[in-house]
Each structure stands twice: as structure tokens, then as C-alpha cells.
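tool_log.txt
---
The assistant was asked to compare two proteins side by side. It first ran the structure predictor on the initial sequence, then on the second. Raw inputs and outputs are pasted verbatim so the downstream comparison step can read them without reformatting.
(1)
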Amino acid sequence: MTNFDEEAKTWDENPLRVARANAVAAAMQSRLPLRPSMRAMEYGSGTGLLSFALRSSLGHITLADSSPGMLAVLAEKIAASGANHSMRPLRLDLAIHPAPEERFQLIYTLMALHHISDIDKILRDFCTLLDPGGWLCIADLDQEDGSYHGPDFAGHAGFDRATLAAKARQAGLGNISFSTVFYMPKVVAERKKDFPLFLMSAQKP
């Protein structure tokens, strides 16, 4: 698995990551009724590329991640941008930490879900953390052959959309829809391969 602590300082220097975050943000802004009063949480936020792209459309954003290195870079970015009043970094891993007491009207993740072992639990946790009528957005890889990360990766090789939708419904979510929002190019076996990313949106009744 990628050592996120070590990569944190140069994470934002990859233009593909910036383009990916901007594409997901644009899709969320066009699909969801975002508003400046919304309380939001990005889970697995990293350095906050997606949240900074959404900042003008939302109210207070909690940026949760388990990597101290990523959170340190994120805190520097928040301070430098003067966003301390509207953005808060939080060290959180819902696999081992208790869920925060705060409730949100929007929770979103970008390329985080395939690193999480127990998908059923995290979806239930997300549903619990949402206010009634709140939205969950997950941007991640479509199911692939494992070549995106390679044979040593211990996470998920993307997701089948129908299977993920069924898990979201079992967790208590509805109004589920998918769209393809980005393609991540990678060189696999000396050939360029484009990996599609979906955006799933779901709503808590």
C-alpha cells in the first residue's frame, strides 16, 4: 500500500490528482443541491484537493484522514488559505476510532473506499453520520483486474457498481445513481491503460 505519510509533501504536485479532484468536484456540483450552509465531511481527505475544489459550494468542512503526514500538509494549506473558520482537519479511522458525534448533510470520498477492508461497516457508519436527507458521494475505481495498484495491493480492485449499490441500500441509503467522471491513465505492462472512475451519489431517507 502507498506510504501516504511519505508522499504527502509532494502529493499535490501531480497534475492528474488535481485534475481528478476538479472533475469530481464539478460532477458533485452539477448533480447535488450543494449550498453554503451545508456541513460536510470528506473521509480519507489526504491533502484536501477535493474539499478545496468544493469549498465555495459548502459551509463547514471536516477533513478526516488517518495519515499524520497528510493531515500536517492539510493543516498548512488551511492556514495558508485563511480557511480555519470553515475547514477542520481531523485524524479519524472509522475502523478503529469511534465515530464523531457531529452529523453532516454531505459526506464524500475520493479514491479512499478501495483502501477500506469492511465496505459494509463503512457504509453503515456513513449513513449514521448523515442527517436525514443528507447525501453520500463516493468517487472510486470501477472494478478492474488488479493492475491499477499491482499484485501486492491488499485493498479492493475497484468496485462493481451494482454490488456497491446493493451494499449502500443495505446500509440504509437510497436514491442511488452512478456516472463516470474521470479516467486515470497508467502504464501497465508497458502500455497505457485508462481506468474509469465513477461517482456514486446516495441519499439518506
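(2)
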Amino acid sequence: MQFDWVAALRLVHVLSSVAWAGAMFFAVFLLAPALKAAGPPGGALMLTVARRGGFGRVMGPVGLLTIATGALLYWRLDYHTRPFDGTPATLLSLGAIAGVAAILIGYIFGVPLQRRLTALAREVAATGPTAEQAAALQNLGARMARMGRIVPPLVGAALVLMVGRFVVY
């Protein structure tokens, strides 16, 4: 019996995409509002998360694994030769575009923001933030929140389109 690489790749792709989307939606729609409502204790928790490398520490590699396995499947199953040939291929291709856009935005804009936030959080860990550092933390937090309004809809669209591909198949 021969090992089925396509099935293995598909399993890793599905599991990593569920983890990526699930963690992102949990963070954006449940955790962030709860932390905001918690006030200063929520801010302290977010500083702790930031000092440890932030959400990107996990979300980035999981998203990259999702995209890499998806790209291998897309190539191996020859969708690259007929990306819009019929409804299932079109849904899959549009989902791939949304997923790639999400990871690119995350890595191009989110990673530098996360690095600055992590560095600043580590800097203020011992003494607490100065007024200038507090303003910088607020600014970085607001910019990260904007990312939270852009990337999750793209990941959600990718998920819906890819699942839709199997519904109409």
C-alpha cells in the first residue's frame, strides 16, 4: 500500500486552516472585546501576551503552513492550469487568492507591528510605561486592531469559498 501524499497534505491543510481561522476569530471577536471591556487589567494581560511574542508567534506559522500546503495541493491537483474552469475551480481559486492576501498582509504589515509592540512591551515590563511609551502602545494597539478588521474577513472568505467548492462539487 502506497502512502497518499495528497490526502496527507489535504489533512494538514484543513487542520491548519481551521486552527488559523479559529484562533483569529477567537482573538478578534471574543478576546479583544473582552479585554477592552476589562479596562486596565485587560491592557496588562495584552502587555504580557505582547512580551511573549504576541499572537503572530503562533498565527504566522500556522497561516504559513495553511498557505504552503494549499499551494502544494493547488499545484499537485493541476488547478494552476485551469484556475477558473468551472464553479468548483473558481471558488477554490478565489479562496486561494483571499488566503494568500491574508498571509501577505499579515507578514508585510502585521509582523513589523508585532515586533515593535513586543519590543516596547518588554521595555516597559520592569518599570511600567512612561507617558510617551503608553501613547506608543496605544498607537500600536490601534494599528493591530485595524489589522483585525482586514485579515479575518479575508481568512473567513477563504474558508467559505473553499468549503463552498466542496458543496457545489
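---
observation on (2): The chain is about 85% helix and 0% strand. The CA atoms of residues 49 and 55 lie 7 Å apart.
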